[in-house]
């Protein structure tokens, strides 16, 4: 189905544009019913030669032209920026504007779901994870099968698998790689530690570590085929390279990929599956983060754990507090604040925290002591686990600190040489300074708790420091006592020479059972 966009007054197109341009409505309806074949370059020719005015849902006139912006905007981008974000109503970071109440209601519903799923602790969230963790795999398999049948999908896969070594010189690439692996694995945020605390004392942590890390990286690699196979089809339909339709950040999940799904037959079904998968992944991620906070607070205040009413009130206040904090991100200029927080406070701050954790375990607690603790906990440690600990030692002592320091230094060097952008908006200097303060504030807890630990000890400052970094073996004693309660220990037998005092009953004919009953 084709329709002609004619340059006439009042039809939303400037009179100075090209007189006639053919527009393929299959871009929006995902089907082309014309007897003639729909050319993939229709949209690109229209956007390159004409200046369009897109009327938003709120009635505001949003101008999308080659003269105003460096890149043309597709209908998906216009809907995302105008209807969803409302970013066109904000002048920048200094002008957040009002809260967008449709997004506020969606955010409230999401936090209500989180609250209900975590109400009974690990018993309820653990059961929900069976659904939220497995459903994305089902959707990925379905999307890969569907994408493999599309024309041009191989071009997208080739783009995905072909490395571009030039980008290794970009600090943002290293920053994004570190953030990706940190967030996908939950490193440095406490989620893994809190979840692992519910395991049995002799659980094989080395086996679980291999399963989690290999499964995580394999899932990320596997998901790339589902994304780029469909993006390759989108590029084929438009007649442009795959690199021009691929995007990063929220733009990939909410603009590029949904736009590609709109080209498929039954686009509504595929879109529902995709966004349901995103929701499941978001809920699953928050389970780990929230569990880390709740476990830490409940361990510090055990009375909250035993009192269901107080625990429910604490969880409700925690979820509501995070909801209020999130309102800034769903204002008209909220995407600018989201970009600022995502670029600074969750990048080098998390790397610094993880670096100090690695240094503390390796050089203060002692890497040999740490490995011996793992062997003692596993009890019947297989030989391959013991050999693998040698590799872990090398990583904890040499490779991981060196790599994190390299990435951190590279990020700091490039941080002031490149400007932070969202679209055509360039963040001001005070905005970048605020982002650095956010990241530094996350790292202040290291200094704060170090001061608290030193102040609790006695003696000179040097003695206090030595005592504060002294390893504690109380966890080992507590767990041994707990194991002894679960498995009663038999009375100790005396193997050496000893003295026995005989009673009068020993010289009589009465049997021992009668004496015992008496």
Automatic annotation (TrEMBL):
UniProt keyword annotations, A-Z: Membrane, Metal-binding, Sodium, Transmembrane, Transmembrane helix, Transport
Cellular location(s): Membrane
Binding site for Na(+): 184, 216, 284
Gene Ontology MF terms in the entry: amino acid:sodium symporter activity; metal ion binding
Transmembrane segments: 99-119, 128-148, 181-198, 210-236, 256-280, 313-338, 344-367, 388-413, 433-454
Membrane topology of this protein: Multi-pass membrane protein
Cited Pfam families: SNF (PF00209)
GO cellular component, one term: plasma membrane
Gene Ontology annotations of biological process type: amino acid import across plasma membrane
Protein name: Solute carrier family 6 neurotransmitter transporter
Native species: Triplophysa rosa (Cave loach)
Source organism phylogeny: Eukaryota, Metazoa, Chordata, Craniata, Vertebrata
């Amino acid at each position: 189905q084709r329709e002609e966009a004619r340059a006439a007054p009042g039809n939303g197109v400037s009179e100075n544009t090209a007189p006639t341009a053919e527009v393929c409505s299959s871009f929006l309806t995902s089907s082309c019913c014309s007897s003639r074949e729909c050319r993939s370059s229709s949209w690109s020719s229209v956007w390159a030669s004409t200046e369009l005015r897109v009327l938003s849902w709120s009635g505001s006139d949003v101008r999308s032209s080659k003269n105003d912006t460096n890149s043309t905007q597709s209908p998906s981008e216009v809907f995302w920026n105008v209807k969803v974000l409302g970013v066109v109503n904000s002048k920048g970071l200094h002008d957040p504007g009002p809260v967008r109440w449709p997004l506020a209601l969606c955010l409230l519903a999401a936090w209500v779901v989180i609250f209900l799923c975590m109400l009974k602790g690990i018993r309820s969230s653990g059961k929900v994870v069976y659904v939220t963790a497995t459903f994305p795999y089902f959707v990925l398999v379905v999307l890969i099968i569907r994408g493999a049948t599309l024309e041009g999908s191989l071009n997208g896969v080739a783009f995905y698998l072909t490395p571009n070594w030039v980008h290794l010189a970009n600090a943002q690439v290293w920053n994004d790689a570190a953030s990706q692996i940190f967030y996908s694995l939950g490193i440095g945020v406490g989620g893994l530690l809190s979840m692992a605390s519910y395991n049995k004392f002799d659980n094989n942590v080395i086996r679980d570590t291999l399963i989690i890390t290999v499964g995580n990286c394999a899932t990320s690699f596997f998901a790339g085929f589902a994304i780029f196979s469909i993006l390759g089809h989108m590029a084929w339909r438009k007649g442009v390279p795959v690199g021009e339709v691929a995007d990063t950040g929220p733009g990939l999940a909410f603009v590029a990929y949904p736009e590609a799904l709109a080209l498929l037959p039954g686009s509504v079904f595929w879109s529902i599956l995709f966004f349901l998968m995103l929701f499941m992944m978001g809920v699953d991620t928050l389970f780990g983060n929230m569990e880390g906070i709740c476990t830490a607070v409940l361990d510090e205040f055990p009375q909250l754990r035993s009192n269901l009413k107080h625990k429910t009130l604490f969880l409700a206040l925690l979820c509501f507090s995070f909801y209020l904090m999130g309102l800034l991100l769903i204002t008209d200029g909220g995407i600018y604040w989201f970009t600022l927080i995502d670029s600074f406070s969750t990048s080098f701050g998390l790397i610094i925290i993880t670096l100090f954790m690695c240094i503390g375990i390796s050089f203060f607690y002692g890497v040999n002591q740490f490995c011996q603790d793992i062997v003692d906990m596993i009890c019947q440690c297989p030989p391959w686990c013991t050999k693998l600990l040698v590799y872990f030692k090398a990583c904890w002592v040499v490779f991981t600190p060196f790599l994190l320091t390299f990435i951190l230094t590279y990020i700091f060097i490039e941080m002031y040489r490149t400007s932070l952008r969202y679209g055509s908006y360039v963040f001001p200097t005070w905005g970048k300074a605020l982002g650095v303060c956010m990241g530094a504030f996350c790292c202040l807890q290291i200094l704060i708790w170090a001061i608290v630990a030193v102040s609790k000890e006695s003696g000179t400052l040097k003695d206090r420091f030595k005592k504060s970094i002294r390893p504690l073996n109380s966890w080992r004693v507590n767990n041994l006592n707990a194991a002894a309660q679960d498995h009663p220990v038999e009375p100790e037998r005396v193997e050496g020479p000893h003295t026995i005092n005989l009673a009068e009953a020993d010289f009589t004919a009465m049997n021992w059972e009668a004496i015992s009953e008496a």
